From TrEMBL:
<feature type="domain" description="Nudix hydrolase">
    <location>
        <begin position="72"/>
        <end position="164"/>
    </location>
</feature>
<feature type="region of interest" description="Disordered">
    <location>
        <begin position="1"/>
        <end position="20"/>
    </location>
</feature>
<dbReference type="Pfam" id="PF00293">
    <property type="entry name" value="NUDIX"/>
</dbReference>
<dbReference type="InterPro" id="IPR015797">
    <property type="entry name" value="NUDIX_hydrolase-like_dom_sf"/>
</dbReference>
<feature type="compositionally biased region" description="Polar residues">
    <location>
        <begin position="1"/>
        <end position="10"/>
    </location>
</feature>
<dbReference type="InterPro" id="IPR000086">
    <property type="entry name" value="NUDIX_hydrolase_dom"/>
</dbReference>
<protein>
    <recommendedName>
        <fullName>Nudix hydrolase domain-containing protein</fullName>
    </recommendedName>
</protein>
Amino acid sequence: MSLPLTNPRNPSRLPPPFATPQSLSDWLKPRLAADSFGSWGVKPGTKNVHNLWLEIAEGETLLADSIPPVRTVEVVIVRIIRNDGKVLIESHQELSNGVVRNRRRPLSEKMKPGESVEAAVYRAVKEELGSLVKIESLRNLDDEICNNVSGNVMILPGSYTKKVEERVSASYPGLPACYVLHTVDAEVEGLPEGEFCTEEIEEYGDFSERGLADCAVSCKRHYWKWVDSESV
């Protein structure tokens, strides 16, 4: 299957439907089980309402007005393959609250509105592996043009697949989620052969600079290792 040109959601960044995390919290409370909602950001490995508000504000998440609400997320999954056929997975993450969250999955990233799969792949590599793989610039992602990519990030032709999964979100207990998964295989030069660690780059972008992400649970470090392709 060939790569789709864009994520079909509206590429324009609109004001979030909830002015503040508190307004989102007030909207969610009568729509979710109290014990589940109360565990957000408290149960190890979960995120809090500030994280969800940021996802909505950045256009990464859509919430259906239902009881319970359904969270829809478009995700790009990058199966980075090296010459011997091994696949790179993120074994675990170190979060800002000190919690270690197990992952054991390939590089993945929530997509932005109007973003192409190709642009999302390069952005994912930049944000999570950028301290090792230098990507000088991604010119105008909204126009789906990715130039000046060093480190030889190459999406393998014919590897694209798409599927939809529906399940309760691990990050937000009690909140049903619909994940639209766009998966590609890729080769990335410049990565270590053994296990390694990287630091997250600009997880919340402008929101971090403006202090709006201070109360959110963020990822500080990613831990990676190579595994046999059959185990992924």
